[in-house]
Amino acid sequence: MNRLMYFTCLLIMACQSKQEHVLHQKVNTPLILDDGNKIVFQDSLSIDFFSTAEVSRNILKIELTAPSNITALVLNKEANNSNNIILFDNPDLASNYTAILQHNATIKLLQDVNIKNKQLEVDRVKDLEQHGAESGRDLLIAETGLSLEKTNLSIEKAATIEHITKLEANGFDPQELQNADPGTAFIICEVPENQIYYLKTQNSCRIEFTAYPNKYFYGKINAITDLLDETTRKVKLRITIPNAQHLLKAGMFGLVHFGVSQGEQLNIPKNALVTIQGNNYVFVKTASNEFERRAVQIGDEVNDNIIIFSGLIIGEKVAVNGVMQLKGLSFGY
């Protein structure tokens, strides 16, 4: 009995050894050719491990988001008042806007009344002097009065510029505030400088406000300021939203969504890409059992895709699973 068990064990061990030998024969080491640029698999078991995706050309759209708040509301004008009433969430901005209106009123008075009258006075005295009815002293007094009014005008304009600059640094154009329709809300948000390229004035956007969950408001980019914050590396955007129903209040917080089209672009899944020493590569399936390493020039990452500028053509297939294994075989690590 013991002898029978012994021979049975030998037979089982021999069968296992034969199966392992057959398995090793089936799984062969891939061939690495052309200095790692070509990988050839010698059995179907290995090649099936590497799934692929087709290179395609389609319209790509990215969505950028930015936190924001309602900074100003345009209210209805009061009777006998030609200026828009603006409700700001920031008292300093309100003070700047009010100061601009006051200085503009003074400037208009100086230009249309004071300086015009002083100029008429100078012209009258000159005429009388030429006919001997006025002295040179009278002309000097008239010209001095005109000069003083012009100096006052320069002072008022300089003071106005200071307040305009402060408003513009916070994303506002005083003239546009004056021309805005009553029932308009102004939103200010900040975007990183590396996103400015995608955003243009008049671009549409949608906004979610904390006060109105599950409700979207729609507006457009009214302006992109010229000042970059040196600390945050961000730029302010001004967005206008219709607010005829007065649902929006100054100071409300929201989240702005910018849907930006990249146009029709050649692209691949981002997990197909490998980067070695600053150079970008993909592995193209060129035959049923063969991959070719290909250098590519890439653009932006859009969602889960990478824009391809050169190195691939539509319809080619690139590895998307097992890419790290192909990288190791191709580059030797």
Observed structural traits:
single chain; 333 residues; alpha+beta; conserved putative lor/sdh protein from methanococcus maripaludis s2 fold; Helix Hairpins; five-stranded antiparallel sheet; elongated
Describe the structure concisely for a colleague:
By secondary structure, the protein is an alpha+beta fold. It has helices at residues 2-26, 44-47, 91-130, 136-169, 174-179, 323-331, and strands spanning 31-33, 38-40, 52-54, 56-75, 85-88, 184-192, 204-209, 212-228, 234-242, 253-269, 274-276, 279-287, 290-295, 297-302, 305-310, 317-319.
Protein described:
The chain is α+β, with helices and mostly antiparallel strands and 333 residues long. Among the domains are: 27-59 and 265-331, conserved putative lor/sdh protein from methanococcus maripaludis s2 fold (Beta Barrel), CATH 2.40.420; 91-169, Helix Hairpins (Orthogonal Bundle). 35% of the residues lie in helices and 37% in strands. The chain has six helices and 16 strands. The strands form three sheets. The protein has a six-stranded antiparallel β-barrel with strand order 4-6-9-8-7-10. Strand 8 and strand 9 (234-242) form a beta hairpin. The two termini are 54 Å apart. The model is unreliable at 6-15 and 17-26 (pLDDT under 50).
